[in-house]
Amino acid sequence: MVDEEVKIGVFICHCGTNIGGILDVPNITEYAKTLPHVVYAADNLYTCSEVGLTQIRENIKEHNLNRVIVASCSPRTHEPLFRATCFEAGLNPYLFEMVNIRDQDSWVHMKEPERGTEKAKDLIRMGVYKAALLEPLEKIKVSIIPSALVIGGGISGMNAALNLANRGFEVNLIEKEPHLGGLIRSLNKTYPTNEDASKLLEITNLVEENKKIKVFKSAIIENIDGFVGNYKTTIVQNENLTKIESGIIIVATGASPLSPEGYYSYNGKDIISQMELEHLLKNNSVYANNVIMIQCVGCRNEERKYCSNICCMGALKNAMLIKEKNPDAHVSIIFRDIQTKGTTYEAYYRKAREKGILFIKYLPEKPPVIKKDHIQVYNEFLNHEISISYDLIVLSMPLIANDDSETLAKMLKVPLEVNGFFLEAHVKLRPVDFATDGIYVCGSAHWPADISECISQSNAAASRASTILSKDMLEVEGSTAEINEDLCVGCEACIKLCPYSAISKDEETDTVIVNKVICKGCGVCGASCPHQAITIHHFTGDQILSAIVTYGGEE
Amino acid sequence: MTFEPKILGFLCNWCSYAGADLAGVSRIQYPTNIRVIRVMCSGRVDPVFIAEAFIEGIDGVIILGCHLGDCHYISGNYETELKMKMLSKLLNFIDFSDRIRLDWVSAAEGNRFAQIVGEFTEHIRKLGPNPLKEKKKKIEILDNLNTIKAVLSDRRLRGLVARQRELTTEGNVYNKVISSEEFEKFFDDAILNELLRHKIMIKIREKGKSVPNIAKEIGIEPYKVLQHIVTLRARGWVDVDEINEEIPTFISIKEG
Questions:
Q1: C-beta separation of A451 from A152 below 8 A
Q2: How confident is the model at residue A555 (pLDDT cuts 50, 70, 90)?
Q3: Are both A393 and A406 inside the same structural domain?
Q4: Do A107 and B20 count as a contact with CB atoms less than 8 A apart?
């Protein structure tokens, strides 16, 4: 191929009247014939029609074309079709180049047809100069290990594991504690149904009994290697090493409650946390008649700017449970903003009000002050300090990121956001994906999530994961970066620059290499490499410069 | 005849190129001067491409990427910003920085694309042609642009820019994080030094020259030229050409 004479065919589309009605297509076609390496140029009504595609296929054969250019609409919509056509005629699809003379020419210069025609000529010439330097590339095929690794055996992890097992995939579920269940094990009842948390834990049995799921408890991750379809994870259990191979990884590591130590004279006796109250309620040992709950303790402040999402509903639930058991009890919730989104949760809040639970708003700059037997709080609406007596104060503490999340993130090479929670690829479009292919996130590992959110997210993550697991092979773009060993000095700047951690140092050969499966071909490394030692295939420096030179040099 | 500038545009595939397509679908009209080169990410645009464009007589270059934070490749456009900042600082020395524009256009901003291209075309029209086209200035401008291209191709500034985010956020090999202000100061010094060194290199490309002569040609004090010559000799780029009456002349021995 390298030594073969370059023979370019240019196909110029009228797109009905969309291009042909404005630009002088026959004139452009004649011009294209005069360009270097062009052995064939023709115009047609619709290049993307079967007639047009057949014309491409036939002329590739008849004129032995080894480069094809279509000047028509946008490569964003039509490049795949024309590439496939080239492929059908035996031409490597990367030897195709598209020139946009509709969306970025005839449609935007409708009143200047002559200058639009000149522009089309320039664009085609630039395309020809680039195309002459195109190189054939191969899509890379990767085999996929058809099993999953789920990290974390809480409600999210268990549900994701079960979901994937029910689709027929082998699942490895690893949990650092000796038991499955995660935070639900510490809960009494769950909102908004007020069901016993133990009921939800029945899923534990389903997981443990499922033949497709291998559960590893008291397991610590030692190392994670590999890429989409081929992850290799080493775990340690009682000093025993186990290697787990998986095609995908789901991160469902959850979060931890912030310790109440040091907040509002917490003492664990009459000033306790919401988690401790869960425990008391479970054992039926709440005897207080005057209960005050304080919201947003240790969060939505300078140190922790976020809202923990689950504490308002949690407090409402526990307040109502106390009221149900002891209708004479006085329960007050001192809050900053009550967050009960959606119809069900908002109805739950109304129910709490109807039950006589008192809601008192406080300002962050004037937080409540706890005295010996009463609490003092400034009320904005009354513009007055009020005091309420208590025999039990409950602090609503946020969920915070696990202290080992950073270690895990580094092993997975995925990012964390500022509070230490895992950061998804795109907040709206890819909410359970990481930018790294084949790794997903669900539940409170991503952000404090309640049980129904954990279930939907873990179903989503399992579903996304199965789009990979259900394939035998994965095809990856051939236009990737490649490091020229002769020019590379091993400064490793590119390793840090790559957003996908596709570049690494090969310890054996002591060279820096690109993993072509992980590389997305963005080209950032190539444009920044201090020694210009990186080739960005299909967008090489030579190809781009060639287009620049012919545009500039033409007078 | 009015001057019709030659504008080159680098558009990233995912945002700005899609925004340009949307301008088409919406039939938003804008000046015909721009010719677009599509790249997958604006971070692919090597500053050398732009220096080359000016050497080839192009009048203005526009680089458009996804809005910061929205890059299809997560952080690619932050790197674009750093690279273009370096380029702009260098071009500033030869009065070319007005001829580039970096901006952000999303796939939904067809209008914004047309507006930016319209504004930039008008701006270049007012600025006039690439001064390379003036016969009298041609040699000087070409020397300047080739100097800039040489600086941009050399590993020193490229290395600094490539490591800028790492140095100012994660720290250097001694785990010392350099503040952005510190970096900026250091970087500005580096730019000036590299520019002078490459200027010297171009002056002694074909013919050996003495320190006082080089100093006169590029308009800086001889002792500074000498300092740079020492550095360039250490790099193996310069050697003594001959010694006339105890005054040595220096010549470039750099390949390529």
A1: no
A2: very low
A3: no
A4: no
pLDDT tens-digit map of B70-103: 888 888 999 999 999 999 999 999 999 999 999 9
Q: Which of A76, A119, A549 sits opposite B17 (nearest CB)?
A: A76
CA B16 – CA B10 distance, rounded (Å): 9
Least confident of B114-123, B125-134, B171-180: B171-180
Residues A280 and A316 in one domain: yes
Shortest alpha-carbon distance between residue B210 and chain A (Å): 30
pLDDT digits (tens, 9 = 90+) for A421-478: 999 987 888 899 987 889 999 999 999 999 999 999 999 999 999 999 999 999 888 9
Q: What is the CATH number of the domain that holds B228?
A: 1.10.10.10
CATH number of the domain encompassing residue B81: 3.40.50
B165 touches chain A (CB under 8 A): yes
- Nearest chain B Cα to A540, which residue? B44
The pLDDT tens digits for A168-214 are 999 999 999 999 999 999 999 999 999 999 999 999 999 999 999 99
What are the CA-CA distances from residue B44 to residues A137, A413, B12 (Å)?
A: 19, 23, 9
- The helix (H) or strand (E) run that includes residue A279 is helix A274-282
- Nearest alpha carbon to residue A462 among A448, A441, A484, A478: A441
Please tell me the predicted confidence (pLDDT) of residue A115.
Answer: 98
B98 and B65 in one domain? yes
DSSP state of A259: P
Question: Given an 8 Å threshold on Cβ–Cβ distance, is B46 in contact with A527?
Answer: yes
Rounded CA-CA distance B39/B42 in Å is 7
Closest-CA distance, B70 to chain A, in angstroms, reads 9
Residue A526's domain is classified under what CATH number?
A: 3.30.70.20
- Asked if B159 and A532 come within 8 Å (Cβ–Cβ), the reply is no
Kindly state whether residues B160 and B243 are assigned to the same domain.
Answer: yes
Count of pairs with CB atoms under 8 A, one residue in A, one in B: 154
Structure-model confidence comparison of residues B77 and A553, the more confident one? B77
Q: How far is CA A97 from CA A77, A105, A351, B37, in A?
A: 13, 17, 65, 12
A552: in domain: no
ipTM over 0.90: yes
pLDDT in tens, B3-60: 999 999 999 999 999 999 999 999 999 999 999 999 999 999 999 999 999 999 999 9
pTM (2 decimals)?
Answer: 0.79
One domain for residues A166 and A115 = no
Do residue A297 and residue A389 come from a single domain? yes
| B chain contacts of residue A72, beta-carbon cutoff 8 Å | none
Please tell me whether residues B95 and B162 are part of one structural domain.
Answer: no
pLDDT of residue A3 exceeding 80: no
Residues A445, A314 within the same domain? no
Q: Give the structural domain span for B202.
A: 154-252
Q: Do A108 and B17 touch (CB under 8 A)?
A: no
pLDDT at residue number A532: 96
Quick check: A528 and B162 CB within 8 A?
A: yes
Are A203 and A95 part of one and the same domain?
A: no
Among B8, B24, B53, whose Cβ lies nearest the Cβ of A108?
B24
The C-alpha atoms of residue A298 and residue A286 are separated, in whole angstroms, by 24
B13 part of contact set with chain A, CB < 8 Å:
yes
Q: Which domain holds residue A172?
A: 147-255+401-474
Domain count, chain A: 4
The span from the first CA to the last CA of chain A, in angstroms, equals 33
Q: Same domain for B125 and B168?
A: no
Tell whether the model's pLDDT for residue A2 goes beyond 60.
no
Which of A78, A108, A436 would best serve as a mutation to test chain B binding (most B beta carbons within 10 A)?
A: A108
Q: Classify residue B173: in a domain, yes or no.
A: yes
Chosen from B39, B40, B61, B165 to mutate, greatest number of chain A CBs within 10 A? B40
Judged by CB atoms closer than 8 Å, whether chains meet at A100 and B13 is answered as no
Within 8 A of B43 by CB-CB distance, chain A residues are: 522-524, 527-528
Query: Would you say residue B140 lies in a domain?
Result: no
Residue B135 sits at the chain A interface (C-beta within 8 Å): no
Q: Taking the mean position of all CA atoms in its chain, how far away is CA A506? A: 27
Number of domain units in chain B? 2
Return contacts of A111-114, CB within 8 angstroms, 24+ apart.
A111/B29, A112/B32, A113/A22, A113/A23, A113/A24, A114/A24
- Asked whether residue A295 falls in the same domain as residue A374, the answer is yes
